[in-house]
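Page 37, top half.
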Amino acid sequence: MKKGLFDEGLRFMRYGAVGATSTALLYVVFLALVEASIDPVVAAGACYPPGVALSYLGNRRFTFASQQTHRSDLPRFLIAYGAGFISTLGVLATALTWMAPALAQLVNIAVTPIVIYSTMRLVGFGRPPSTAEPTCHGLDD
């Protein structure tokens, strides 16, 4: 159990590194779009596809070191990012009712990655199909 928890911690730190790199780049793009008078929710939505592509490549290779086919990994990844997209829109729509767009996006940046990572672990991203079924706590690999 301790090794599983330690491995999960390392995996989450790698996930954070991939996410921080992608997020920093796309946060600058988000701010530029808002500065260009694009609605903040639309700007966040526009940043999502390139963010998904960067994240898929980085997490598949670096975070999870997947040896699976894209055919196996991509649907699982897209499910996780679909959950993240819903989270993004919900967090922003809610946070924008009482804070500026730049701060609302920072709240989103804190919440949505946890939703995505949890979903990736639940759907078995990066694991062979035979071991990808959800587990009680996701620490068994």
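Page 37, bottom half:
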Amino acid sequence: MVRKNEPHTHEIDHTPCPYCGHIRSCATGLDDERRPKGGDYTVCAKCGSVCVFDEQLMLRPPSPQQTQYLIENPQMLQRIMHASRVIKLRNKARRLPN
């Protein structure tokens, strides 16, 4: 059972990250249970890069206008950058020798 305000994961068609090539087959929302749609921002679970879903839910880099939108919306930018940092720190920790 998914409680209110908990992330909800949705299966999506396999789509590669445009930066690292990691194949993604699901997407988890931050606020609600709706499926991702074209224009939604996301963060690659492998490399932490900021991406955008296109209309076919394939990942692509943000356009200049979408990047500007993030700059003008600091709360959204902060949440996306936090997710990106967590992923990058997790990956860095995994590479450290025991």
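Margin note: Residues 9-95 form one domain.
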